[in-house]
Fold this sequence. Notes:
Distance between the termini: 40 Å
Largest sheet: 7 strands, mixed
Shape: globular
Number of helices: 0
Order of helices and strands: EEEEEEEEEEE
Oligomer: single chain
Strand content: over 45%
Amino acid sequence: QVQLVESGGGLVQPGGSLRLSCxxxxxxxxxxxMRWFRQVPGKERELVARLIDGRTTLYTDPVKGRFVISGxxxxxxxxxxxNSLKPEDTAVYFCAAGRLSYASPSYWGxxxxxxxxx
Length: 118
């Protein structure tokens, strides 16, 4: 059974850092297209970062140079290291997985809240 469980969200001051984790069960992280999305109430869900084959990465422009997506097959976990956080990064963050990079993800986690505020 496939399951994705996020953790690591919380309240952080502007300029701070957080690392989100997504523990995966049912498949190996490097064999799927793994993504982090975020959503703010009233807005559409936004792709933040993507990881293919455990090494090829893609980032949305607002987070380039600040966020790093990575995966670890030894503990089957996807990560999102978030540095230099800004108030506009405040959102619920979701991890997602699918077989195809051009299709919507098949599996989603429940989300974790990130709040950037002083």
